[in-house]
Amino acid sequence: GAGSLKVSIIDSAGDLRGTASADVTTETPEPGWSEQDPLEWHRGMCKSIPAALDAAGAAPGENGGAKIVH
Asked: N- or C-end of the chain: fewer Cβ atoms within 10 A?
């Protein structure tokens, strides 16, 4: 599984304006298994979205959409 969650702010011209990330723990309870806590993803998003907006110099509501990719 992924070791972190990353948020990128991209403007309408396709230029990267800001990013932020949060670590996500991956547990391996059995050989070949990978598990992550959905609440840890949620907490990471709640932390990273405002940080990425701040890094981009953007305010909430200035952006037209969002895309979440795993």
From this structure: C
DSSP string, 2-60: -SEEEEEEE-TTS-EEEEEEEE---B-SSTT--B--HHHHHHHHHHHHHHHHHHHT--T
d(CA 12, CA 20): 19
Q: Which amino acid is at 2?
A: A
- Separation of alpha carbons 16 and 7, rounded Å: 11
Q: What is the pTM of this model?
A: 0.78
What are the distances in angstroms from CA 22 to CA 11, 41, 58, 64, 65?
22, 9, 19, 23, 21
